[in-house]
TrEMBL record:
Record-linked PANTHER family: BLL6612 PROTEIN (PTHR47756:SF2), BLL6612 PROTEIN-RELATED (PTHR47756)
Protein name according to UniProt: RNA polymerase sigma factor
Region entry Disordered, spans: 75-95, 413-456
UniProt biased composition (Pro residues): 427-440
Species of origin: Dietzia aerolata
Compositionally biased region (Low complexity): 416-426
All copies of domain RNA polymerase sigma-70 region, residue ranges: 14-80
Domain DUF6596, residue spans: 188-286
Bias (Basic and acidic residues) ranges: 75-91
Top-level taxonomic group: Bacteria
């Protein structure tokens, strides 16, 4: 045993060790429930033992040893043949036998890393796509059905049932807890990335400045974990870069009065330099040897926005080019709006409105399109139409700070005409008029709701 226990050490060890150990404990039979029960038993034993005896030299190996033996004991109780190793646990939870001393610590070197296998199982084609993100949050991060339901705005009972069905499906379909083969891995990685981004998009407005803080922080943690597990996958680095660069601006999204601050007016000194650096590192790791996918393109757009911290200006022409490529590769309604906004910045509001018109009837029900249209109509001097669009946008906006910002913009309609859409200046608009809203895919700091659905 090592020195006396530091406050919070058990919580830190449990949080860091959980995905690795639960994945490994579930690997023999795919029973996530039994694996989590065994891990919980090991944690309870640690909470009794470590404060009295001190921190083990290798806490993760200690937890694995106890949890593995719990699983073995339950298999024996059910009169089933065991897939787990023999010996090394006493009835009171003390580690005994061959792994009682140094071999417990050394055994950590032999613990295979099955975290990617666990992520792959959660994103398996046999698992309902609507359950993949909740299952990752539950199985990999240990969030309860109640917490996941609250984060995803789903009743606890509904979420619990969804998770139960997903777990039963994994067992019934005999989904293996192993890293997919070379032919299957790319498709599975795409499903994993989409599930992680789905978690982030729910909570992007409140994205944390550090991993594990809120749902956006959990998604950021998963994205960087994925890069750790598949370090040579460019698109996974693109996803991590996207989330890092967006999260870096969290503190600047509201002012001291909790009022919304548009991206182009944010004080870049309030952006998190550490997350910006990590995002840039992920972009460099993604490289340029292969054609970029949607996450690398979105990350590149974020990087151009973040470059204002160094240059003092936003390169809207580069942003338009990137959005053009993104929309051609992976068309979404939100991406179409973002491209229209970037076009308006470069060529004026009429050009942006022309692109918005191509959305057809969807534009009348899609909050990002209405927010962008209202600003462009005002810039074009079409005040009456702008007021109507703002009214409709405000009714569809749920975030209080965003609603107040749009209400201020509506009250300023007609005060200036033609100033802003074609400008690349980051200075506040004249007469104190609120800056034009922009969709989240153009910078994720906008008075709109995220667009999560890809078009078919």
């Amino acid at each position: 045993m090592a020195d006396a226990l530091h406050p919070g050490m058990i919580d830190r060890v449990v949080r860091d060790a959980r995905p690795r150990l639960v994945a490994l404990l579930a690997a023999p039979d795919g029973d996530l429930d039994a694996a989590e029960d065994a891990f919980s038993d090991a944690v309870e034993t640690a909470m009794r033992s470590w404060p009295e005896n001190g921190e083990p030299r290798n806490p993760e190996a200690w937890l694995f040893t106890v949890a593995r033996n719990r699983r073995r004991d339950r298999w024996r109780a059910d009169r089933r043949s065991t897939a787990f190793d023999e010996d090394h646990t006493s009835g009171d939870g003390r580690v005994t036998g061959a792994l009682a001393t140094t071999s417990v610590e050394e055994s950590a070197l032999e613990i295979p890393d099955r975290r990617l296998a666990l992520l792959a199982a959660a994103a398996h084609p046999e698992v309902d796509p609507t359950a993949r993100t909740p299952l990752m949050l539950n199985a990999v991060l240990g969030l309860s059905a109640e917490k996941i339901g609250a984060l995803l705005l789903v009743p606890t009972a509904t979420m619990s049932a969804r998770l139960t069905r997903a777990r039963k499906r994994i067992r019934a379909a005999d989904i293996p807890f192993e890293t997919p083969g070379i032919d299957e891995l790319p498709g599975r990685l795409e499903a994993i990335r989409d599930a992680i981004y789905g978690a982030y998009s729910v909570d992007w407005t409140f994205s944390a400045e550090s991993a594990r803080d809120g749902l956006a922080g959990e998604a950021l943690y998963l994205a960087e974990l994925l890069c750790e597990l598949v370090p040579d996958d460019p698109e996974s680095h693109g996803l991590a870069a996207l989330l890092c660069l967006s999260s870096a601006r969290a503190a600047a999204r509201t002012d001291i009065n909790d009022e919304f601050v548009p991206l182009e007016l944010q004080d870049t000194r309030r952006w998190n330099a550490t997350l910006l650096e990590r995002g840039e590192e992920h972009l460099r790791a993604a490289g340029t040897d292969t054609p970029p996918g949607p996450y690398r393109l979105q990350a590149a757009i974020q990087a151009v926005h973040c470059a204002r911290r160094r240059t003092g200006a936003t390169d809207w022409e580069s942003i338009r080019k990137l959005h053009t490529g993104l929309h051609a590769l992976s068309p979404t309604a939100g991406g179409a709006v973002a491209l229209a906004v970037a076009t308006a910045r470069c060529d004026g509001p009429a050009a942006g409105l022309e692109l918005l018109d191509r959305l057809g009837e969807r534009a009348d029900r899609f909050q990002p399109a209405l927010a962008a249209r209202a600003a462009m109509l005002d810039e074009a001097g079409r005040a009456a139409e702008a007021v109507t669009a703002y009214d409709r946008t405000i009714t569809l906006t749920t975030d209080p700070a965003a609603r107040r910002h749009l209400e201020r913009a509506r009250s300023c309609v007609g005060l200036t005409t033609g100033a802003g859409s074609s400008s690349t200046s980051t200075a506040p608009p004249p007469t104190g008029r609120p800056a034009a809203p922009a969709p989240p895919s153009s910078g994720m700091d906008a008075t709109v709701q995220p667009d999560r659905e890809r078009e078919s």
